[in-house]
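Key result, reporting period 2: structure in, sequence out.
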């Protein structure tokens, strides 16, 4: 028995030594490539000093805007004014004379904004953008809320809108503290029983969900409870790589290998979104999504999730950034019967693309759909049939309603084979990201990224061609906007008990096995961001 124990100990030690050797080898390789990489630019090294989470909890909206103004002034003096001659390019947002420099625009949508309606105020919407993103991404919905009598508060989440280095050491707790500050201001502007909506895109969707969960669990009642969530490509789960992303940055502890702290250091040609991405961004996203998944299970097990507000979620079946399956398995599976709905945008099933698509893409929708959603509505937007570009919204049958078909009067564009994570909040005529922006619109921000149709030989571009060909606007945006506006007049749904499978805090075994298989296949074929 003793000899057997010794053999097990030796094997365990050998395994640990082997893992350590592999880790050291990986760090050596990462350090080598970081040392060989081009030096970091000012926008990778100058870190604007955001308010901390504690400071944000003690601050108000005016204090936040005052610090925001200081940060943008710092970027102007310490980055833009000092951009070296070799980086003074028309395609660099940090060159002061570049046409894409946001400071030259009539309105810099990298900053927080407040849109007030004319006449009676009916409610307030807090809009939360995504990771590496800016308040620009939700400005179309913000404008629509404003037209419908809502105050629209667009928050610049800390670390965003300035320089990519802003994400180097920020944490998700700070993002959430800023969300709390924005909701406090929203309720000061619109007190009483008038509606409060949280609208979140990508990482902003995760923050909206986390805030709503915290409001449920808050014994003091200090956190204002939202009446409804609108989630667009919400980051409820990310690929497993993000969990260990922080290990990649270890060589960056030595200044010579500073590049190791970055997953990408691309040219900054996008005026309202960072192209460079630090390791810390991936790590914080994993931490946030992990906290959400744990809290959802805890509140479902305790029964507190029964008071969760109705959520309307829009998600592309194919998403390279977040896990579509996780939205179902880690959130919707646990929600009570409160009128929540999940809208999935399917791939273009035109026979034109059939031979070019992977089998995983073809089967993704089938494998995503649960056997019987029951407690929430599930709608699929896609082709009426493979021979037609015409599309419809098909709401699947549930326990209390039959299947519903809604022709959209929108053709799936022949050049689009699927939507993408970044496409959903932008109409096709968006001046920056729209594929069908009018000629006069394309000059508004100095570039029309959605209209680029690049052709050439391999190995010429220094930017991944996939990043430029990714769908950047949504042909179904009119439908998305209409569905969101319908929530403004939707009657309230009485709170319901949590769904039975969630009462134990865990999904049923068969469903969980299917989820794990899908996630594993997704991880093998996609990157984290």
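The corresponding designed sequence is given below.
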């Amino acid at each position: 028995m003793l000899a057997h124990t010794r053999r097990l100990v030796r094997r365990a030690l050998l395994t640990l030594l082997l893992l350590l050797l592999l880790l050291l080898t990986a760090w050596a390789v990462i350090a080598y490539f970081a040392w060989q990489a081009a030096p970091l630019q000012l926008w990778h090294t100058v870190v604007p000093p955001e308010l901390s989470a504690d400071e944000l909890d003690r601050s108000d909206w005016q204090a936040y805007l005052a610090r925001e103004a200081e940060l943008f002034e710092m970027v102007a003096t310490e980055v833009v004014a000092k951009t070296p001659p070799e980086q003074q390019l028309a395609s660099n947002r940090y060159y002061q004379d570049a046409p894409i420099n946001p400071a030259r625009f009539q309105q810099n949508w990298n900053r927080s904004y407040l849109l007030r309606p004319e006449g009676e105020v009916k409610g307030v919407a807090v809009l939360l953008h995504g990771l590496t993103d800016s308040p620009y991404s939700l400005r179309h919905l913000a404008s629509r809320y404003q037209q419908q009598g809502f105050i629209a508060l667009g928050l610049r989440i800390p670390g965003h809108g300035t320089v990519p280095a802003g994400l180097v050491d920020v944490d998700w707790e700070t993002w959430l503290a800023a969300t709390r500050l924005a909701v406090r201001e929203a309720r000061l502007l619109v007190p009483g029983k008038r509606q409060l909506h949280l609208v979140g895109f990508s990482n902003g969707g995760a923050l909206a969900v986390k805030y709503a969960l915290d409001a449920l669990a808050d014994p003091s009642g200090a956190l204002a409870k939202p009446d409804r969530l609108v989630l667009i490509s919400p980051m409820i789960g990310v690929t497993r790589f993000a969990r260990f992303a922080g290990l990649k940055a270890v060589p960056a502890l030595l200044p010579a290998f500073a590049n190791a702290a970055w997953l990408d250091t691309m040219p900054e040609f996008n005026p309202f979104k960072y192209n460079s991405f630090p390791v810390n961004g991936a790590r914080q996203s994993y931490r946030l999504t992990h906290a959400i998944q744990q809290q959802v299970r805890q509140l479902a097990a305790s029964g507190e999730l029964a008071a969760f507000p109705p959520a309307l979620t829009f998600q592309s079946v194919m998403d390279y950034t977040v896990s579509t399956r996780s939205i179902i398995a880690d959130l919707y599976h646990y929600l009570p019967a409160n009128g929540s709905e999940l809208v999935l945008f399917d791939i273009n099933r035109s026979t034109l693309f059939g031979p070019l698509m992977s089998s995983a893409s073809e089967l993704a929708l089938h494998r995503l759909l649960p056997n019987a959603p029951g407690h929430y509505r599930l709608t699929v937007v896609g082709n009426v049939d493979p021979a037609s570009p015409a599309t419809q919204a098909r709401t699947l049958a549930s326990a209390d309603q039959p299947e519903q078909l809604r022709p959209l009067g929108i053709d799936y564009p022949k050049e689009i084979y699927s939507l993408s994570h970044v496409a959903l909040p932008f109409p096709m005529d968006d001046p920056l990201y729209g594929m069908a922006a009018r000629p006069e619109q394309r000059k508004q921000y100095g570039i029309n990224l959605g209209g680029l149709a690049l052709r050439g030989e391999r190995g010429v571009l220094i930017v991944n061609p996939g990043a430029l060909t990714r769908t950047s606007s949504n042909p179904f945006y009119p439908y998305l906007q209409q569905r969101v506006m319908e929530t403004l007049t939707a009657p309230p749904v009485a709170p319901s008990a949590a769904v039975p499978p969630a009462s134990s805090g865990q999904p049923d075994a068969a469903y969980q096995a299917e989820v794990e298989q899908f996630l594993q296949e997704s991880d093998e074929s996609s990157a984290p961001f």
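The first strand starts at residue 113 and ends at 115. The first helix runs from residue 2 to 36. This case is discussed further under Risks and Mitigation.
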